[in-house]
């Protein structure tokens, strides 16, 4: 299992895109990673856009980014809420400074925009936030997955297989 001993933060908030949270979580677990669901509150059930629940193991205030090897930000409408938490933005900034893998898909780019880490980065996202990404200084392209250093970005659920493979590969390298 190539990801044994790797720890990953998977952020949760209501209205996450169900597949964009669970597909990466399950695939990384299959490869041996420990993936912790982290939300505003510990032991709270957050519900995805299509009704799939996710229970947080930890609250934002319970963890330190330095104790983790990577972070995943799911899409859906959750990123619009997640980017309002200072702790989330700090996690993303710390991961960026440490060059640890950051995975973002669909609308998750909003969190990276609010963390102010996209200037000059090559990324993709749902086309719906292309202008937001470019206004933040990113170089946007319409590709299933874009890897720029430690940042792995993707557009939407049909792109999950190449996105999660690229993220797992990056995590295995770190």
UniProtKB/TrEMBL annotation:
<dbReference type="InterPro" id="IPR029062">
    <property type="entry name" value="Class_I_gatase-like"/>
</dbReference>
<keyword id="KW-0645">Protease</keyword>
<dbReference type="GO" id="GO:0008233">
    <property type="term" value="F:peptidase activity"/>
</dbReference>
<dbReference type="GO" id="GO:0006508">
    <property type="term" value="P:proteolysis"/>
</dbReference>
<protein>
    <submittedName>
        <fullName>Protease</fullName>
    </submittedName>
</protein>
<dbReference type="InterPro" id="IPR002818">
    <property type="entry name" value="DJ-1/PfpI"/>
</dbReference>
<dbReference type="InterPro" id="IPR006286">
    <property type="entry name" value="C56_PfpI-like"/>
</dbReference>
<dbReference type="Pfam" id="PF01965">
    <property type="entry name" value="DJ-1_PfpI"/>
</dbReference>
<comment type="similarity">
    <text>Belongs to the peptidase C56 family.</text>
</comment>
<keyword id="KW-0378">Hydrolase</keyword>
<feature type="domain" description="DJ-1/PfpI">
    <location>
        <begin position="6"/>
        <end position="167"/>
    </location>
</feature>
């Amino acid at each position: 299992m190539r990801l044994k001993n790797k720890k990953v933060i998977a952020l949760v908030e209501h209205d996450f895109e169900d597949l964009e949270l669970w597909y990466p979580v399950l695939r990384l677990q299959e490869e041996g990673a420990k993936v912790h669901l982290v939300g505003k509150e510990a032991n709270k059930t957050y519900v995805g856009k299509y009704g799939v629940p996710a229970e947080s193991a930890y609250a934002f205030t319970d963890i330190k980014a330095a104790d983790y090897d990577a972070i995943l930000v799911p899409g859906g409408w959750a990123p619009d809420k997640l980017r309002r938490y200072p702790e989330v933005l700090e996690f993303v900034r710390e991961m960026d400074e440490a060059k640890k893998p950051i995975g973002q898909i669909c609308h998750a780019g909003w969190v990276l925009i609010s963390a102010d880490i996209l200037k000059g980065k090559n990324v993709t996202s749902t086309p719906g936030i292309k202008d937001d990404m470019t206004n933040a200084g990113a170089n946007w392209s319409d590709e299933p997955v874009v890897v720029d250093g430690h940042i792995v970005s993707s557009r939407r659920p049909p792109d999950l297989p190449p996105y999660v493979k690229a993220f797992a590969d990056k995590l295995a390298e770190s």
